[in-house]
Amino acid sequence: MASSSLCHRYFNKITVTPFFNTKKLHHYSPRRISLRVNRRSFSISATMSSSTKKVLIPVAHGTEPFEAVVMIDVLRRGGADVTVASVENQVGVDACHGIKMVADTLLSDITDSVFDLIMLPGGLPGGETLKNCKPLEKMVKKQDTDGRLNAAICCAPALAFGTWGLLEGKKATCYPVFMEKLAACATAVESRVEIDGKIVTSRGPGTTMEFSVTLVEQLLGKEKAVEVSGPLVMRPNPGDEYTITELNQVSWSFEGTPQILVPIADGSEEMEAVAIIDVLKRAKANVVVAALGNSLEVVASRKVKLVADVLLDEAEKNSYDLIVLPGGLGGAEAFASSEKLVNMLKKQAESNKPYGAICASPALVFEPHGLLKVRE
């Protein structure tokens, strides 16, 4: 109230001109906004909290999208300021399995920046591109010399870190088919996640969440890692066997290649969306990613930018063997309010075709529209 009164007393009209580029404001998140008011000046500034940890995740054409997106998502959940940088000459990246994502910036624009952690996703040919990126190699080597964290998963430990000489005398792990190459430059171990000094490595897509939570702990402490891992509903013993219980069993059948629709919207949970798309495409299904709204580009719940194949208006014209909804509160709410999508789901149910959902979507989309009722 004091600041408000002061403003009213000394200014009849206030015009605030940001000194920063507002289009790049997300690079400052999380941020502290400071307000300075006196007789002659009024200004607003955005400054990074001194305790905020900065993380760089480079991506390229052919990067494994599930690994990249989980890393981004989990580290942002931990409160880290994550920069996704394209090593290509454009921010748009065609990742593996036809998944498209948009980086925050070009690596070439931030080579002088300092990060608390640099973490490399895998995937081919993305891993080779990262290995051959000289500016990235220089940044990672300086990171190592300065005693800051470096991390890599899948093929990246062997292809990048090994080639750059970072693993000499270190224990490390990687994707199984690269273990022989890794053994030539490190002590290769089959751990799901391996920590040796300031180097953290992991095996592949199935270990990415553990890898990312481990890095939250390395950067921000055990308490923060526990806080982050809880809502992720992680399995307590990820390497153990697991079972699936199917109730009201039905016969799933289709002709030829299964046609699958995965809708996404602003606020969709990016990890869930990308995992669904990635795994189903690995199974050789034809997956159509459809965006609600008027733009193919969607800003997901942790600000990862994904690019759909088509708009839902176009996807609505076809029929599908399966429709699967990711979660994320904002995305689920958008799904629930989409008459087109709800009608498609109801037709799917009437045709005895399967549909699925995860996280918030069963409760916010299926239940209110009667899509969880047992059919007689």
Automatic annotation (TrEMBL):
One annotated Gene Ontology cellular component of this protein: cytoplasm
Family recorded in the similarity comment: Belongs to the peptidase C56 family.
Signal peptide: none
Protein name from the UniProt record: Class I glutamine amidotransferase-like superfamily protein
Keywords associated with the record: Repeat
Pfam families the UniProt entry points to: DJ-1_PfpI (PF01965)
Gene3D superfamilies: 3.40.50.880
DJ-1/PfpI domain ranges (all copies): 53-218, 259-375
